[in-house]
Amino acid sequence: MKLVHLLFFVIVLQTTGTPQWRRRPFFLVRGSSVQENDDSSHQRQEIEHQLSQSSLSNSEQAELYVELAGLHQTADSFHEAIKAFQQAIRLYDDDDSSNEEHVATLYSDLGETYLMLLLSGVEDASKVTNWETAMHDAWEQSKRRYRSAMQHQEDPLLSLQYASVCLLQGMYCTEHGEPMRGWELIQEGQAHCSDPSLPMFLSEEEMRNLQHNRLAAWTYASKAANVLRKFDAALQALQPVMEYYRGELEHRDTTKDDPMFYHDYAGQCLGQGDYYLQLGQYNQAKESYAQAMQLYQKHCVEHPNAPKLHHTLQRALDVGEMEAIQEQILLFQGALKEYDELLQEEGEPAKFDSSHESALGFTVGDLLHGRLASLYTSASEPVLAEVHWRQALLFFTTIAPDNKIRKYLAAELHFNLSQSLWEQGKYEESMKQRILACQLYQEILGEGVNPLMTRFDGNEIVVSAEDTMM
């Protein structure tokens, strides 16, 4: 199972008089923890010594276990941190002086610690399942305790704590095959962290963190809606994100900026364009792609070290799957070599190729290059995939270019080529290919038709019924 690194919703409250337990600064981004050192080891020993004292009350012991859990997290000793949190929760539950909000925070931290454990890398599927179950159980307990606390007091910070759990859990569900649950959790979380009085309780830095994490959650919501084929909802969820980038762009000094801002903005434009494309709103899709291309031209081309998105390269292929793909590649490479030799023997290669055209307009060249491009994409070889997508396009645009079916398939090839270019960091050319795909889809299908919901019926292109998943 591949675990994706999430942007975590962690707000460190610095309000005067705020109890430490209300949100301790456990930053959960992997790699941010400091290395184990003698001081932290000494601190753990000191706490363990204090815990051995029989005179401590339940609440005093619990506070020490919470501190101990933090030290274990710092040392990446997540199993020990989990045990310490669990012990603290048991002690607080046995203490009549503790309150629901306090225990809710500990359950939230327990769930986040399970998440850190999952992100640390594990191969045993049964352990992953068990830890995921424990993680969600902890978050559910946290939300239940927060809801109970909110029934007795109106507090924007309490709502924000509840929202943080919903958003983090929603983003995880979206990324791990539960888009409906993810969508619902993110909507719930967003509804609880929009109190207009929050600036009175949070510092400017905390408000910026809150905004960035809300934007991250909206991005995940748009992904969830996309998986559920609710493209209108995906666009709506993306709207606050686009408004943020547009507003930031107006006030930025482009001579001093980090190119990652423009890289990320362009990526959001690309996502917006894809949603418009799937709604059949081709003009809007082309505008979004053109905006992405403009951002790449002006800001990203000069920064070749800007991180690239490698959707295909990040696929987790096991050894057996990769071997099977390589076998197919060798098979089709051999077939393509024989085919090229036959073409060289003919006086009119184009005539020879068209004589081997199928009823739908496919030729041997189309099929071989298209199949090899798909295989190289699966094998995480975008450079070789690009070569064969271009070769397949050459066949489609030189042989019967006005054939409706071939023109439609050429649009598919332009789109696939765009993906391979994107994975290589050739962003500007990638957007050009997407725009070409849009133009062909628009010409063949007309406005309002989702090209991904079309199929062949004889020699015709028909629109399939949309699946309603929300």
From TrEMBL:
Keyword Glycosyltransferase: no
UniProt KW keywords: Signal, TPR repeat
TPR repeats: 62-95, 266-299
Keyword Signal: yes
Coiled coil: none
A Pfam family per the record: TPR_8
SMART domains membership: TPR (SM00028)
Signal sequence residues: 1-17
Protein name: Tetratricopeptide repeat protein
Organism whose genome encodes this protein: Fistulifera solaris (Oleaginous diatom)
